[in-house]
Specification:
about 300 residues, alpha/beta, D-Maltodextrin-Binding Protein, domain 2, 3 domains, 5-stranded mixed beta sheet, 12 helices, rod-shaped
Length: about 300
């Protein structure tokens, strides 16, 4: 195959050859292909040189294929039609037999509630499909989608490039997660008690600021900063630390650590929307559309369970 690609043969020349052979005329071929007659003649000369034998002879005012040209035409007619049909045929996607690999950009919080459920659905509906989960943040996700490095993403995002679509999945409200065996909070948590306690925060910048500091501009007593919500449960369990996390994440953590408790925050906190993002270029990709549909359904179910 590499040897074939390396030869000096433009496959467009075969299309010109086929039309000239069918019409028997350079003029009519030029009309059909929207080319000039000199361009058609030049293409035939190039093809003749590449083949190494004459392909046409004059017959009256037209052209007739030589024996070499007739043999070439038999091959070209079959394969050229197959190539055109393959190029114009609509893409077919069968989940049950697809071996597609999908690259998803997931915020660490989304990876916790989405990925297990998504893999479960794929196991039922598309057992040969595979998922590559790529960690993303709101600062990086737009560029990764716009450059085709991701097929879709689920995260919180700010401004996005023009070639990226977005769909809100649910609004992520927050709660205070703690271990009541180690830290005693009033039944109705006050700001004084909240800010007097020590906290674990999730910081993507690797500092002591979390979402509370960014939103309400008040610094907590941060004992520990981690880069992922996946670590929060183990740090809260058995210790005096409070963690301010999305309700959906808190419920995920409590499935493994049911003795932890969720408490309403003592201040107004807007939360953030979790969004499904994807490149416009994948709008007609049936496999990616299939994955997006699954994500939307899983998100709706997860939000229903978290906030009921």
């Amino acid at each position: 195959m590499n040897t074939s690609y390396g030869r000096d043969l433009d496959l467009n020349l075969l299309r010109v050859f086929a039309v000239v052979a069918e019409t028997g005329s350079v003029t009519r071929a030029a009309e059909q292909l929207y080319l000039t007659q000199p361009a058609i003649s030049a293409a035939l000369r190039r093809l003749t040189t590449a083949v190494g034998a004459p392909l046409f002879v004059r017959q009256g005012r037209g052209l007739r294929p030589t024996s070499r040209g007739e043999r070439l035409m038999l091959r070209v007619r079959t394969h050229l039609r197959a190539l055109v049909d393959a190029a114009l045929a609509p893409a077919s996607f069968e989940p049950g037999s697809s071996e597609r690999t999908v690259r998803l950009g997931l915020a660490d919080s989304a990876e916790m509630w989405l990925l297990p459920a998504l893999l479960g659905k794929l196991g039922e509906l598309a057992p040969r499909m595979r998922v590559i989960s790529v960690p993303v943040q709101f600062r990086t996700v737009g560029a990764l989608l716009a450059t085709g490095q991701l097929d879709a993403a689920v995260t919180v995002a700010d401004e996005l490039p023009a070639g990226v679509r977005r769909q809100e999945l649910f609004w992520g409200n927050f709660t205070c997660l703690h271990d009541p065996r180690k830290v005693r909070l009033p039944r109705r948590l006050t700001q004084a008690a909240y800010f007097a306690a020590e906290h674990v925060v999730v910081s993507y910048n690797g500092d002591l600021r979390g979402i509370v500091e960014d939103v309400i501009q008040k610094q907590r007593k941060v004992r520990c900063s981690v880069a992922s919500f996946a670590r929060v449960g183990a740090l809260v369990d058995g210790g005096p630390l409070l963690a301010t996390v999305p309700i959906l994440i808190a419920r995920q953590i409590r499935q493994v650590r049911p003795h932890l408790r969720m408490t309403r925050l003592p201040f107004s906190f807007p939360g953030a929307p979790s969004e499904l993002l994807w490149p416009v270029a994948t709008d007609d990709d049936e496999a990616i559309a299939f994955i997006r549909k699954l994500i939307v359904a899983i998100a709706a179910q997860a939000a229903k369970q978290a906030y009921q």
